[in-house]
Amino acid sequence: MSEVVTVRSLHSLYEKKGIDSLLALGEVTIFGWVRTNRPSGQLAFLELHDGTHFLSLQLVYTKDNPDFEKMAHLKMGASIKATGKIVASPSAKQPYEVQVSALELIGDVADDYPLQKKRSTFEFLREQAYLRPRANTFQAVYRVRSVLSYAIHSFFQERGFVYVHTPIITGNDAEGAGQLFQVATNGEHPFTDFFGKEAHLTVSGQLHGEAFALAFKDIYTFGPTFRAERSNTPRHASEFWMIEPEMAFCDLKGDMEVIEACLKYAIEKVVTSCKEEIDFFDRFIANGLKDKLQAVLHSSFAHMTYTEAIKKLEEAVKEGISFENKKIYWGMDLQSEHERYLCEKIAKGPLFLTDYPKEIKAFYMKENPDGKTVAAVDLLVPGEGELVGGSQREDDPLKLKEKMGQLKDMDWYLNLRRYGGCPHAGFGIGFDRLLMYVTGMQNIRDVQLFPRTSNALKY
Amino acid sequence: MSEVVTVRSLHSLYEKKGIDSLLALGEVTIFGWVRTNRPSGQLAFLELHDGTHFLSLQLVYTKDNPDFEKMAHLKMGASIKATGKIVASPSAKQPYEVQVSALELIGDVADDYPLQKKRSTFEFLREQAYLRPRANTFQAVYRVRSVLSYAIHSFFQERGFVYVHTPIITGNDAEGAGQLFQVATNGEHPFTDFFGKEAHLTVSGQLHGEAFALAFKDIYTFGPTFRAERSNTPRHASEFWMIEPEMAFCDLKGDMEVIEACLKYAIEKVVTSCKEEIDFFDRFIANGLKDKLQAVLHSSFAHMTYTEAIKKLEEAVKEGISFENKKIYWGMDLQSEHERYLCEKIAKGPLFLTDYPKEIKAFYMKENPDGKTVAAVDLLVPGEGELVGGSQREDDPLKLKEKMGQLKDMDWYLNLRRYGGCPHAGFGIGFDRLLMYVTGMQNIRDVQLFPRTSNALKY
Fold first, then answer.
1. How far apart are CA A199 and CA B71, in angstroms?
2. Which of residues 108-167 of A touch B (CB under 8 A)?
3. pTM of the entire structure?
4. What ipTM was estimated for this complex?
5. Neighbour-count burial of B425, counting CB atoms closer than 10 A to its CB (0-12 exposed, 13-18 middle, 19+ buried)
């Protein structure tokens, strides 16, 4: 009986032990899908893709084979079983190919198959979200998505962080109420029917995470979060995954050290584990991607306070740089164009911007001794703007109570400061945006599996 | 400046290099919370817990210290900073302790702190869900939760499975409509407002996962799923995490091999990484737990068809075993008492029960050649009943179409069989139930962070 192999197992054997170990395998069996099938004269070439690796495997069969005609009719997209011997093939994309003895159709492709050989647009493929993982670009996107996810887990687990599953359905109304999805039962109104109070989908696991940081010291969440925003931009979706670490006995400085280490660790894992995918993105999606990622790996992230940033922007305006939002003043919310100027032109790389005016930041951020700013940080990166947002949390129960104002049912959150509270800090990474940054993909709809935005719920 | 250490870093150094390496550290600083503080005569003992390890660290301070009185007043739950030298201490729980030179209060504990030294009941602690991770049992539960989660990821990643984030908000109505949560916006009715069609919270990522298995061969999900069930049992919650792998070119036999390997891998990781926690559960929560887990690791899971199981149950009734559900017949849905009899009395260990009547299983399961049963499997385990459910999927588009019946908007799912379909199989593990099995905890509310059940949404 011949050994069952995959494109990945062959590739990995080749990389570790060279061509001879492949030739020694004898007859092998492999399952997968037809990418191309080109009979020409006495010889035919079939490109098999099995989803285990970005690369395909070349199968070769000849007119001698009694089933040649049947084989030659196998269509793009069909699932097949192939048996044959591995031979050296310096001319193929890979240095080996399979000389087929038997090729069996498992599942045929109906004539209305929407994917065709010519390159489909991303817009078209979005409409075929259940089939697009078969396309080259999306093979790369979703594999990097998986590798990047696991890298995030590995980073935190290796550092002893406890992974917590903060709830998706929540009764907190901690981050502004306008953009929440409510949760209802059986088409019934009011929404308090099932839980006895209004329930909605979480916008952040942070507050729940803080309770666990004050028991485990270092924790992280990695799960879905939601916004009922109708904004139809390439960077917004109604459902997206967030990573939210929280660390007790940690200040803003410690927070930034973890952010920087985390991003470098994750990018390093992707560039080493997904060489072919990153090559592909660099070549076809975002020229210069590889250089950009290498630069991040070998840089020290720059630091600047908000107050310094305002000065830099004022200088820029004096020097004739024109922003769409011309008026620069202390206390303003920085726009994307300002953020990009700061990291692209001033820092020329990732930039931690810290100590924002308290009025433009969330209630839970720790007030600095100046009474005007909070210990907040945004990480700005060239080409994207904000990639990570974090802060030290307000641990003074009196100050926090004042800032919480009208928030209901949040005594427990306040109590965390009254029962053995301590300086603690955390941050949030929008996982889908990080994936866009790492792949160079320009639309969040093209890095998620089945993106959810307003009026988009086909699958 | 003294080195900042954690209970885990000390413990791990001790295990790897012995006591001398600890003594060589000189003065260290450690942050954490007071578990107990017992001044007596000239000497005082403070048990510090920092959340990085199940164990605490003993701090010793003496009346010589000018701050003795202040130290002696530190209360249970207070957060502190301690500095001192590590010394050998054969009498303590750990073979070393810290001789304190300075002890500093960081965050005090208000007098209404609900956690007290005497053991609180699980019922009481459920009401204090934001504080219970500080209690011994829940330190153990949530650390195992984290280690078990990561073990699941490691198992699949090491085998080349691609991790996919299937959507939480979905428009599919594939698994029976009665128990769904709807998603609404801004308190508005009808629920079609935001997405243009009715949206609800997913009950399973399987169907979306199948689309990705047919592109990547092997994939897995690991994310939250939902049921709007009002059943108030120790095993049901409205929100819980599921693991759902899906494998192309795989039949029921391959499916079962992965289930068995996955569970053994995950349990092995937990028993080796969480020794103290499993000891604790074995001693205080579920006597015999360690033996049970070791037995699973060293067993070959048994196999039995549903038809054989019915015969065994009929024999049992003849032999005088009395079930609450007395009538045993082919075609019946097995009840928990039957499942437990089969694995506890007949198999005496984990049991794969296969090939159920098609009428009692889901539409997407592959019909067997007998026309009466489907290629389904449930894994039954002693003490719990069903732990995993899986099946080979129906890959014949005509048969599937017939079984799908009235389901709307599911053409894409059917098309997966028309566009290069192939035999594929998968399974689902309820992660919270797996955690109950591994820890011996008896109520799902005590293994989740902030459990959601009807009328329970306090945090």
1. 45
2. 108-110, 113, 115, 130-131, 133-134, 138-139, 142-143, 145-146, 149-150, 153, 157, 160, 162-167
3. 0.97
4. 0.97
5. buried
